[in-house]
Amino acid sequence: MGDRYYDLVSKRAQRNMDAGEPAGWGGDRAADAVPLNFGFPYPDSYPIDSLIKACATALREDGADALRYGGGPLAQEFDDLVAARCSERGLRAGEGNILVTNGSAQAISTVCSLLLDFGDLILVEAPTYMGALREFGNYGAEIRGVDLDGDGILTDELQRVLEELREDGVRPKFLYTMPNFHNPAGSTMSMQRRRHLLELAEEYDFLVVEDDAYGELRYDGEDLPSLRALDESDRVLHLGSMSKILAPGFRLGWIVGPEPLIEQADRLKVDGGTGPFVRAMVGTYLREIDLDERIRHICRGYRSRRDAALNSLQEHMPDGCDWSEPEGGYFLWLTLPESVDVTVLLADIAEAGANPLPGNIFFPDDRGRNNLRLSFSYPDPDELDRGIRAIAEVVSANIK
User: Fold this and answer.
1) How far apart are CA 241 and CA 100, in angstroms?
2) CA contacts within 13 A on the Cβ side of 158
3) Is 269:288 a contact under the CB 8 Å cutoff?
4) Can you spell out the DSSP letters for 233-271?
5) Burial of 51 per CB tally in 10 Å (0-12, 13-18, 19+)
6) Helices and strands (H and E) in the chain: how many
7) Fewer beta carbons within 10 Å, N or C terminal of the chain?
């Protein structure tokens, strides 16, 4: 971009343009490589015929109101249906406690606008969702990572970090967490750590931002209550999404939280009305179906893909490699020997036939160079095997 255009944009935007994509994002990709990079639903999961009918019904029932700013009655019906479902899950989503957003991405951005000033400290799991890291960086936050394992964030380590910060006179603004089927690590936070985390939030006086985009996609084990459901002091902002249980193209998400914060967030969210016609169409669809049965249906498809990916890893990966075994969600977290730097192998992996994401883009510091995130949600089992076999071949050739 020419110098005169740099003069027109904010310092935040200039930082983004200077930075480009995060280091190690990948570069060129082979056209026939198996797409293990992004968390897309598998194509057959979309209920196309039912959505066509819902679209026609929404236009017929709401008429021109469906197409105006703010939408008609059916848009509000969607909001009511989401609030009712959140309440069924124990999220206390009464009137004034929920805000519908343009996907969970806008939910994260809105939380940042609501809570962050330049230089504020926030805590995240390490690793964590790359999109959240970028958004937090856009708002000038100082980001500190706390390690996790198969049972979620290490709350004993978190307590040590919080005590160090207290001694320095620093209070984190919030902690961002994905307790269910973590992106990218695949872990699920144990009940003990959920309770400990909330105790720490109370003791050290910070908010918790709970990103639960994958929470209803469980394939094994028992459901655990969300942090919002366990929260007795109104410190949790819960983020949800229709992207993974219906379709990401609808861009419908929500924030559930304390009424004063939701009221302020609503004032900050300037978008002319979040997808009013889409809300009407989706609300029409939801009132005609059994959503729990739909979720069970798509989970069968995801479970078969997860199992295929795990079997392929077991069959093809060389000794010295380890991986998560998630009970739900979209992602596997692959840990390679420390001698393997995936950031310099991405082109070779793509040429061999796979497009995973490098682990370093999921950390707020310079870690993750021997990690890969594999998304099993989109490819079919045969493609998953081909892609994982390609990764294994390149890794095997580069273990020192």
Assistant:
1) 9
2) 29
3) no
4) SS-EEEEEESTTTT-GGG--EEEE--HHHHHHHHHH--S
5) middle
6) 14, 14
7) C
DSSP strands (E only) in 103-250: 121-126, 142-149, 152-153, 174-177, 207-211, 236-241
pLDDT at position 20 over 50:
no
Coil/strand/helix, residue 150:
coil
Q: Are strands 354-355 and 34-35 parallel, antiparallel or unpaired?
A: parallel
Q: Which domains does the chain have, with CATH numbers?
A: 3-45+293-398 (3.90.1150.10), 49-288 (3.40.640.10)
Specify the 3-state DSSP secondary structure of 99: strand
User: How open is the CA angle 285-291-294, to the nearest 5 degrees?
Assistant: 100
Give the pairing type, strands 152-153 and 142-149.
antiparallel
Tokens of 213: 């985009």
- Would you tell me how many other CB atoms lie within 10 Å of the CB of residue 335? 17
Structure tokens at 193: 């750590």
Closest CA relative to residue 188, chosen from 151, 228, 214, 216? 151
For residue 1, pLDDT beyond 80: no
Q: Hey, is 47 helix, strand or coil?
A: coil
CB neighbour list of residue 246: distance below 8 Å, 6 or more residues apart: 252, 282, 285, 294
Residue among 150, 154, 112 at smallest CA distance from 131: 112
- Measured CA to CA, the distance from residue 146 to residue 144 in angstroms comes to 7
Amino acid (1-letter code) at residue 151: D
Q: 309 is written with which tokens?
A: 């990916």
CA dist list (Å): 119 to 139, 141, 159, 188: 8, 5, 22, 30
- Residue of 397, 238, 333, 295 whose CA lies nearest to 45: 295
- For residue 264, count CB atoms less than 10 angstroms from its CB and return exposed for 0-12, middle for 13-18, buried for 19 or more: middle
- Report whether pLDDT(380) > 90: yes
Mean pLDDT computed over 223-234: 96
- Across the chain, mean pLDDT equals 91
- Residue 386: CA count within 13 A, CB half-sphere: 15
| pTM for the full predicted model | 0.92
d(C-alpha 51, C-alpha 143), whole Å? 41
* Structure tokens given for 258: 């304390």
